[in-house]
Amino acid sequence: AIERTFSMIKPDATRRNLTGAIIKMFEDAGLKVVASRRVHMSLREAEGFYAVHKDRPFFGELTEFMSSGPTVVQVLEGENAIARNREIMGATNPSEAEDGTIRKLYAESIGENSVHGSDAPETAAEEIAYWFAGTDIVG
Ligand code: CMP
Fold it and tell me: Is ipTM over 0.85?
């Protein structure tokens, strides 16, 4: 089925000017960018977005990193977009990511891993709504 997923290009990647290279990988794999915005999120916004991880030992590190520089928040649309996006990203830990994936190519560490993507339909809907109004999404 045609799905939408939430994608974020993280500060380690915007710092290295990899925005275009990463978006090209999504587009080449058949996903379409239907909403896009560059944001330098506040610590509070990062804490809200990642609230599901608030009891994890890496929560402080994660939210400080995510508010340390610009990110690009996007909605990607396509056939099985949620799973497809996760295949293109590769494993969270770049040392476990498959060849040809974004994280294998570009991620610096498990924390500074260049991209985020939703893991399920419910989280995709929540994450899209956190950053975008319905009228921002143009299919
Ligand atoms: P992401 O898909 O953005 O969702 C939560 C993030 O937490 C994850 O990618 C990682 O970047 C980060 N993360 C997971 N495990 C660790 C860890 N052990 N140390 C630091 N960051 C982590």
Answer: yes
119-135 pLDDT, tens digit per residue, is 999 999 999 999 999 99
Q: Name the residue with the closest Cα to ligand 1, atom 20.
A: 111
Mutate to test the pocket of ligand 1, among 92, 95, 101, 118 (most ligand atoms within 8 A of CB): 92
pTM: 0.97
Element (H, E) at 74: strand 71-79
pLDDT tens digits for range 86-110? 999 999 999 999 999 999 999 999 9
Atom of ligand 1 nearest to the CA of 117: 2
| Alpha helix segments (H runs only) across the chain | 11-15, 19-28, 43-49, 59-66, 81-89, 102-106, 121-131
Task: For residue 62, give the ligand 1 atom closest to its CA.
Answer: 21
Type of residue found at 83: A
Residue closest via CA to ligand 1's atom 2 equals 116
d(CA 91, CA 31): 19
